[in-house]
C-alpha cells in the first residue's frame, strides 16, 4: 500500500528542536537521508505565517516527491493543497475532518487508549499513531506510554497501519517495526541530530532491518 511506504520514516517538525539551524536546511537534509513523509507541526504561528511556511515547505518537498502533512489545521492544509492532515483526540473530530477533505487526502489520527483504537476501526483513517510509544521531553501533555506490549496489542486489534511516535531512536526502531509498527515518527532523533542526513539514513536502515527480520 502506498500509505505504508509514506509512513515508514515520518519526520514531525519542531523548529525549536532544530537547535538554531535553518529549518528548511534540516528538513532537506533529512529528506535526502531517507525521510518518507513530513508533518509541519506549528503550535505558535499565526494563520498567515503558518500558511507561508507551509507553502515554502511544500515547494521544497514537491521537488523530492515527499508528501506534506499539516498538524491540527485542516484550513491550512486545504489552503496550500497539502497531502493531508494529522489530528489528535482534542482536535477537530475525525468524522468532521473527513467531510471537509477531498477523499484522496491522507488523514492521520493519534490514539492514546485501547478504546480509541477500537472506535477508529469504523473510520476511514489512513494511519493511526500510537501516541506516545515512550515518554518524551518533546511532548509532555500525553497519556501513559503504550510501550512495546501496548504496540503488540494494537497490531493484533486494528486493521489500520500503525505509526509509533515518542522516544524513537536508532536503539528502538528495529524493535518497534518487529512488534507491529509500519513506520516511526520522530522529532528530536532527526531535528536535533548533529547530521539530520545521517540520522535519517541510520533510522531508515533500522527500519529496513526490522522489515527484513
Ligand atoms: C504522527 C503523529 N502522531 C501523533 C501526534 C500527536 O498529535 P496530538 O495528540 O494532536 O498532539 P499535537 O501534536 O497536536 O500536540 C502527531 N502530531 N503526529
Ligand atoms: C508530537 C508527539 N506526539 C506524541 S509524542 C510526540 C513528540 C515526539 O518527539 P520525539 O521524537 O522527540 O520523542
Ligand atoms: Mg493535535
Automatic annotation (TrEMBL):
One term of GO molecular function: magnesium ion binding
One GO CC term, this protein: cytoplasm
CDD domains reported for this sequence: TMP_TenI
Pfam families cross-referenced by the UniProt entry: TMP-TENI
GO annotation terms (biological process): thiamine biosynthetic process; thiamine diphosphate biosynthetic process
First-tier enzyme category under EC: transferase
UniProt keyword annotations, A-Z: Magnesium, Metal-binding, Thiamine biosynthesis, Transferase
Protein's pathway: Cofactor biosynthesis; thiamine diphosphate biosynthesis; thiamine phosphate from 4-amino-2-methyl-5-diphosphomethylpyrimidine and 4-methyl-5-(2-phosphoethyl)-thiazole: step 1/1
Function in brief: Condenses 4-methyl-5-(beta-hydroxyethyl)thiazole monophosphate (THZ-P) and 2-methyl-4-amino-5-hydroxymethyl pyrimidine pyrophosphate (HMP-PP) to form thiamine monophosphate (TMP).
Name of this chain's protein: Thiamine-phosphate synthase
Amino acid at each position: 500500500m502506498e500509505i505504508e511506504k509514506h509512513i515508514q520514516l515520518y519526520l514531525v517538525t519542531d523548529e525549536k528542536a532544530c537547535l538554531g539551524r535553518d529549518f528548511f536546511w534540516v528538513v532537506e537534509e533529512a529528506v535526502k537521508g531517507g525521510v518518507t513523509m513530513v508533518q509541519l507541526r506549528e503550535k505558535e504561528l499565526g494563520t498567515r505565517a503558518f500558511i507561508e511556511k507551509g507553502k515554502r515547505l511544500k515547494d521544497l518537498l514537491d521537488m523530492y516527491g515527499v508528501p506534506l502533512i499539516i498538524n491540527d489545521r485542516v484550513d491550512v492544509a486545504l489552503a496550500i493543497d497539502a497531502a493531508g492532515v494529522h489530528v489528535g483526540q482534542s482536535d477537530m473530530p475525525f468524522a468532521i475532518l473527513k467531510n471537509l477533505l477531498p477523499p484522496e487526502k491522507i488523514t492521520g489520527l493519534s490514539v492514546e487508549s485501547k478504546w480509541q483504537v477500537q472506535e477508529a476501526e469504523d473510520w476511514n483513517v489512513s494511519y493511526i499513531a500510537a501516541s506516545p510509544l515512550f515518554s518524551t521531553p518533546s511532548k509532555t501533555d500525553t497519556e501513559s506510554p503504550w510501550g512495546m506490549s501496548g504496540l503488540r496489542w494494537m497490531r493484533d486489534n486494528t486493521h489500520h497501519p500503525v505509526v509509533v511516535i515518542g522516544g524513537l531512536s536508532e536503539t528502538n526502531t528495529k524493535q518497534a517495526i518487529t512488534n507491529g509498527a509500519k513506520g516511526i515518527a520522530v522529532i528530536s532523533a532527526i531535528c536535533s541530530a548533529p547530521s539530520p542526513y545521517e540520522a535519517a539514513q541510520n533510522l531508515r536502515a533500522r527500519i529496513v532491518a526490522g522489515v527484513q527480520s
